[in-house]
Write a structure and sequence with these properties.
48 residues; mainly alpha; 2 helices; 31% helix
Length: 48
């Protein structure tokens, strides 16, 4: 994912959290390579 795509993905997060009255968001986008997910610190079962 490029920086531009990452910005596009992140832009509406706060808006939707507010519209649906979420206290916090349940998504997080990170700039990483899919081939190296084992190098990213992720909580168990966070990728569903």
């Amino acid at each position: 994912m490029t920086g531009e795509k990452l910005n596009t993905a992140n832009r509406p997060i706060d808006y939707h959290a507010k519209v649906f009255a979420y206290l916090s968001t349940n998504v997080e986008f990170r700039k990483r390579k899919i081939e190296k997910l084992d190098e990213v610190e992720l909580a168990d079962e966070s990728l569903i």
